[in-house]
Amino acid sequence: MKNFLCSFVLAVLCVAGSVAGADKPNILVIIVDDLGYGDLSSYGATDLKSPRIDALMASGMRFDNFYANCPVCSPTRAALLSGRYQELVGVPGVVRTHAENNWGYLAQDAVLLPEVLKPAGYHSAIVGKWHLGLDEENWPRARGFDFFHGFLGDMMDDYYTHLRHGNHYMKLNEEDVHPEAHATDLFATWAKGYLLDRSVKEEPWFLYLAYNAPHTPIQPPESWTRKVLAREPGIDPKRAKLVALIEHLDDRIGKVMDALHAYGQADNTLVFFVSDNGGQLSVGANCGNLRGGKQDMYEGGIKVPACAVWPGVIEAGARTDFVAMTMDIYATAAEAAGVEVEQAMEGRSFLELLKTGRQEAFDRDLFWTRREGNLRYQGESTWAMRRGPWKLVKNSPMEPWEMYHLENDPLEERDLATKNKAKFSELSAVMRVQIQRGGAVPWQSGR
Question: In the predicted model, what is the mean pLDDT of residues 170-182?
Answer without folding.
Answer: 97
